[in-house]
Structure to design on (776 residues):
């Protein structure tokens, strides 16, 4: 995973004060979220010992996969405000 | 009251990557410096506090792209722009930048407060504001954290390392402001749309009759600092403490 | 407090990707007032491609565009690599037609191309505003009349939603496409910088030539999908595309980002990228369901184009999207021009958009490849058959210490009756594409 952090470190990210992707309260153990621990290409989903899934949206590539897999009933999901978030130089 | 704000077109610093310790500037978008946006915001506030009387005029010198880049400032609330277009302007040394900007300010005619950032976001020479003041024979106040005007007087708070100094000065004056003293406003779409219609006075470098002595400072190298990582693997907290102690980062 | 801007546009385009810029370029060229709103710092900032655009199908729609376009390399060499766990078989295709102009396809980096394309649209008269997210669309009396962006209400005769695969705008207008995870793939890649001379030497390329390589088999750990490598001017784009449906439902699960690291470490790949420096890591979701996954394309005052409409399809040898995006943007613009002539922006008039698409290569392809995704979702293709093929090759090439088995029994050992029988349903499926 440290390798993934290094890769994300190569990308340009512009800060959004309130990054608008979050797991809805009380739904942290949903099995669909568990899938994201393996699928998220930026590795932003993690599971703690108690089986709770946590999301750190820092480094989000805005690919949209988690919204598709989990749905809007589990995730609050919005694009960051204009001019914020990842800015691909090569794409 | 004419409030002049000097703004510099610089590469988007977050977009610059390092290859072999050298900055890669190809295709990097241009923008107005962050500290310059603080200066603009300070200028807009001065106008607002004066009952929205007066004009905020942006001056800049840059390559042809500046005509586009300066729209950011016009969208954010500046009333007009006066810019010197010079293809070499992105690579000028401070003494020449100052001559160009002073020429633009003279073109405007009346300038009551001239605001600069304390140093530009890319080179941070910190000279241009003071040099312009010298050319125009105006008083200059630096390290400004706050600027207020009453009539023909400006009251400026200078934020120094260990204290704050408040000075009063008669207009006109050159003020160099510090970074992050305010939160620059973000223009709305309709303000951006209107910015295209605001007046831009464009001065071609060839139209200026001025004496510059050419380049006197040569940049020999521009390298990112080498980060020497020790890469010492540790398995336990105790081992980590021992390494930190050995390296002098931490004492028991 | 939302402010209403006093200007009214012929069209507001949401999203400065290929569909949106194509629409804006076409509209502006006809003198229409068009505004593009893009949430990235610049057009291209949020856009990702694997790396190849087939210009052949869209050349005529944008006749002036291609001579100066900042494309990377024309693809002169095609290669498919069937990967087993520790061996692989490559099939390389070279054809003189690939070397002749006009070239069929090019490698492309969207950060560079989209920025340039946006400038061309601006030269035609389009207004493009970046760093601006559209937060909502405005619906009055059942018709879309504008958008809300950064607190401004912006009005237009038509809104063209080109806001990408998730298309919130199309959804708000009730034009939802499929949300079935089986209809989407995740693509992720690294751009790896390599000195052009080294790159040309390694891939056996002349100055402007490029190579395209596809990988199937172990590269996706047996999951539905594949790997790709495209040579750019001074970098390669190396990545994977994986069907999301299979990742969600099938066991065993795989650590998706880790697959790319394993891919890079394969000896077939590591020698190609040796000494190269990764300069970017990107990911994006791709609609690949084709016609079965598409939603409605228009309603009163709104058209949907590009990924937002699901204009992307897996045709087996590649997932194509960019050409469909550009063509759908173009036809959306033509539909708006047509509507303006009639001064009627109702769904009935905008329906001509669908007719344009039906008469073009876009919907013809989508109909022809209707079944492709279902056909390709055949797990044996990504695990069993690649191993089978490299297994045969291994035995054919092997010179044992003792006597060598004749060729026919060697092949026959792998392709027994049961194996051949099992291929019948696959062949049947394959006949559909």
């Amino acid at each position: 995973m440290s390798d993934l952090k290094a890769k994300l470190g190569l990308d340009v990210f512009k800060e959004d004060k309130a990054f608008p992707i979050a797991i809805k309260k009380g739904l942290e153990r949903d099995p669909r979220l568990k899938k994201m621990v393996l699928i998220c290409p930026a590795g932003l989903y993690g599971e703690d010992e108690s089986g709770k899934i946590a999301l750190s949206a820092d480094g989000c590539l805005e690919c949209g996969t988690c919204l598709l897999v989990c749905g809007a009933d589990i995730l609050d999901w919005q694009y960051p405000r204009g001019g914020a978030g990842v800015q691909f130089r090569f794409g | 009251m004419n409030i002049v704000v000097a703004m510099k077109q610089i590469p988007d610093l977050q977009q610059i990557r390092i290859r072999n310790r050298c900055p890669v500037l190809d295709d990097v978008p241009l923008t107005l410096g962050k500290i310059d946006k603080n200066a603009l915001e300070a200028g807009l506030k001065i106008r607002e506090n004066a009952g929205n009387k007066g004009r905020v005029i942006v001056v800049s010198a840059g390559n042809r792209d500046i005509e586009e880049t300066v729209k950011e400032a016009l969208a954010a609330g500046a009333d007009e722009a006066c810019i010197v277009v010079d293809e070499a302007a992105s690579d000028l040394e401070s003494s020449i930048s100052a001559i160009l900007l002073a020429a633009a300010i003279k073109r405007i005619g009346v300038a009551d407060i001239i605001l600069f950032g304390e140093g530009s976001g890319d080179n941070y020479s910190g000279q241009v504001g003071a040099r312009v003041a010298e050319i125009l024979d105006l008083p200059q106040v630096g390290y400004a954290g706050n600027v207020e005007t009453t009539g023909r007087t400006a009251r400026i708070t200078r934020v120094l390392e260990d204290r704050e100094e408040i000075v009063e000065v008669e207009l006109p004056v050159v003020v160099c402001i510090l970074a992050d003293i305010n939160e620059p406003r973000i223009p709305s779409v309709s303000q951006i749309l209107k910015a295209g219609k605001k007046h831009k006075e464009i001065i071609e470098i060839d139209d200026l009759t001025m004496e510059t002595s050419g380049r006197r400072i040569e940049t020999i190298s521009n390298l990112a600092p080498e980060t020497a990582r020790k890469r010492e693997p540790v398995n336990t907290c105790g081992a980590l403490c021992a390494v930190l102690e050995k390296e002098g980062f931490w004492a028991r | 407090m939302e402010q209403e801007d006093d200007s009214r546009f012929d069209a507001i385009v949401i999203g400065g990707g290929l569909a949106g810029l194509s629409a804006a370029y076409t509209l502006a060229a006809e003198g229409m007032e068009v505004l593009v709103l893009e949430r990235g710092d610049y057009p291209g900032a949020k856009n990702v491609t694997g790396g190849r655009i087939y210009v052949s199908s869209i050349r005529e729609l944008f006749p002036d565009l291609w001579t100066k376009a900042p494309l990377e390399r024309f693809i002169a060499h095609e290669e498919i690599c069937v990967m087993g766990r520790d061996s692989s078989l490559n099939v390389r295709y070279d054809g003189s037609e690939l070397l002749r102009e006009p070239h069929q396809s090019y490698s492309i980096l969207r950060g560079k191309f989209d920025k340039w394309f946006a400038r061309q649209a601006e030269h035609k008269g389009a207004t493009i505003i970046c760093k601006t997210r559209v937060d909502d669309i405005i619906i009055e009396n059942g018709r879309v009349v504008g958008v809300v962006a950064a607190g401004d209400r912006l009005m237009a005769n038509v809104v063209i939603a080109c806001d990408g695969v998730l298309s919130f705008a199309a959804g708000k207008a009730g034009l939802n496409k499929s949300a079935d995870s089986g209809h989407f793939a995740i693509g992720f890649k690294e751009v790896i910088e390599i000195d052009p001379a080294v790159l040309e030497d390694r891939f056996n390329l002349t100055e402007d030539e490029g190579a395209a390589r596809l990988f199937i088999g172990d590269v996706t750990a047996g999951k539905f999908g594949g790997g790709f490598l495209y040579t750019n001017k001074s970098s390669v784009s190396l990545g994977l595309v994986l069907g999301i449906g299979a990742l969600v439902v099938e066991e065993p699960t795989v650590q998706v980002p880790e697959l790319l690291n394993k891919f890079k470490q394969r000896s077939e790949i590591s020698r190609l990228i040796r000494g190269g420096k990764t300069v970017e890591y990107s990911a994006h979701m791709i609609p690949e369901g084709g016609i079965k996954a598409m939603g409605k394309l228009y309603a009163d005052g709104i058209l949907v184009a590009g990924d937002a409409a699901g204009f992307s399809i897996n045709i087996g040898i590649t997932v194509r999207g960019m050409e469909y995006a550009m063509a759908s943007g173009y036809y959306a613009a033509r539909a708006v021009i047509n509507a303006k002539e009639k001064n009627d922006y109702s769904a009935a008039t905008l329906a001509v958009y669908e007719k344009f698409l039906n008469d073009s290569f876009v919907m013809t392809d989508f109909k022809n490849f209707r079944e492709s995704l279902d056909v390709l979702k055949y797990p044996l293709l990504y695990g069993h058959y690649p191993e089978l093929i490299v297994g045969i090759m291994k035995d054919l090439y092997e010179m044992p210490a003792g006597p060598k088995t004749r060729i026919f029994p060697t092949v026959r050992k792998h392709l027994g009756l049961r194996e051949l029988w099992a291929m019948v349903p696959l062949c049947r499926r394959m006949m559909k594409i």
About this structure: Chain B has one domain: 2-218. The interface with chain C takes residues 12, 15, 17, 19, 27, 29, 186, 188-190, 192-193, 196 of chain B (CB under 8 Å). Residues 2-218 of chain B form a domain with the Rossmann fold fold (CATH 3.40.50.620).
